[in-house]
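Handoff note, outgoing to incoming analyst
You'll be picking up this chain. Sequence as last confirmed:
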Amino acid sequence: MTLWLAIGGLSLAAILPILWPLLRPGKVAVDRLDHDLEVYRDQMREVDAELAANTVTEREAGEARREIERRILRAAEHGQSAHGPAAPSAMTAVLIALFLPSLTLLLYSQIGQPTQPDQPLASRDVAPPPPQPSPRALTDDQNEQIKQMVARLAQRLKEEPNDLDGWTLLGRSQAALGQFDEAAKALRKAIALSDGDADLLVAFGDILTKEADGIITPEALIAFSKARELAPNSPAARYFIALADLQGGRPQQAYDAWLGLYRELPPNSDNRQALAEQIRRVAQQLDVDPEEQLAEAVPADRIQSSAPPSQTSSPTAPGPDRAAMAEAAKLSTPERQEFIQSMVQRLADRLRDEPDDFDGWMRLGRAYGVLRKHSVSADAYGHAAA
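Most recent structure output, in case you need it:
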């Protein structure tokens, strides 16, 4: 008798959390349109605050307001109020209360092992998890070297305020040190001097996003939108604009944009694999299966054209041709890594003979940073600043 009382009590404790919502009267869910409008009102207030703080110009604030207003109109056109489900009948609760314990007993009678002895955790022979490798960080000496280089560069720019490359290098270096506010100021000057550079606009928006802990701010969205106008096929600009859609409550738009970008990235690239994970997470929100679309192949003749502008070759910086890129995309991960290492080494060898090539040293610094060779990356940036 005691056993059955215990079973009944445990069953009641297990099904009560399921029955309780069914027995309560249904509530009307929060209107999705009202939620979207509240988000947009917050964004409007943030634009006004940035304008008052003189971090954006009147023209930029106007563009941000117009962008937010367009999003409000789209939300008003497509938004529909979401209502909670009607209150379920008492019969539903009764059926669940009877069916769930019965199903549990039936399953346990088939697969349960009541005679199985206990296995305390302390007596289990479980190997500890393997240590996870951590990315190499800058040492104190390397960090100090970069800080000194940044200080010298900042001092030089006071005397040469029209040095576009100098402001660009200063902004990227300060961002590497986590000084996002100062980095944003430096890149603002670089953007003003460049008269519209898509790569600089993307870098500027990326810094603002990092400073806001991953949130696309109105000023960052303006930068990404301008970058897309200048370079419509810019993968980075398209990625961040889709991220803004996701953060603004429009997962379907983000899903479609990321899926289109995914199809254009080189097969087996790290960026493509990371984007696939993002797409899968959004697909869960939309309750769709993305695997068939993710499995689509990419034509080899689109590999080169889909690379970001910063990765394409220039007349002064010889790089791999279309055939080499297509072949690299077919390599395994270790082989592709070796291919990249050889390209970086060729660039380093060339710069020994051409030490005044600023763009070359900047590319080399970024390449070593991607390879997590922070010490030689700092040295390359130091050569660029010299």
